[in-house]
Amino acid sequence: MKSFIASALMLLAPALAMAQTPAKTEPKPETKAAAKPAAKSAPKAEAKSAKTADKASATKKSTEAKTEGTSSRTQLKSATNQVAAGIIAAEAALSPAELAIAERVHVGRIPCELGAFVTVTAEPASPGHFHVEGKGFKYFMAPVTTTTGTVRLEDQKGGAVWLQIANKSMLMNQKLGQRLADECMSPQQLVVAEAIKKNPPVSVLEPLK
Fold it and tell me: pLDDT per residue over 19-28, tens digit each?
């Protein structure tokens, strides 16, 4: 009986050994399977990184192009403004006769009839030109020669005329056909007006005594 049991154990020993061996070698295929996804994910990461780099490069180029375009437009606008300023300066240049008239213009805040005021201010950047302002109007004027010797300033665009004689000044809008201010007197003109009141000039229509 004992020999029979020993023989049976000898026959079963190889089977038990074979049953235990696969349990130790099973993890190897799992390691290979796990390694494959890691190998596949690397190219995906590289492709994503390449796309991000391309996108950043494209954005940079677009920004540089926009900046260059804006700079070109700014330079063109600046050049245009300079040319326009040169044309305006050339048109604003006055003759010696006109500059002589400008020297006779009374400046300052000048009172007029009905409580109105006209302010005449010389423009430093444009010799011989004046700003003529008041309630409801503002003009930029230049002197114009006359045959009578009257000081005459005009704003051709606005259609306004400022006339200055010895004892008073007046402002007219020729386009509208309106007198905007009358009986305006600077301190110099006021002196002349008072003198005329005290010693009226002789009229050519009155007979000589």
Answer: 454 444 444 5
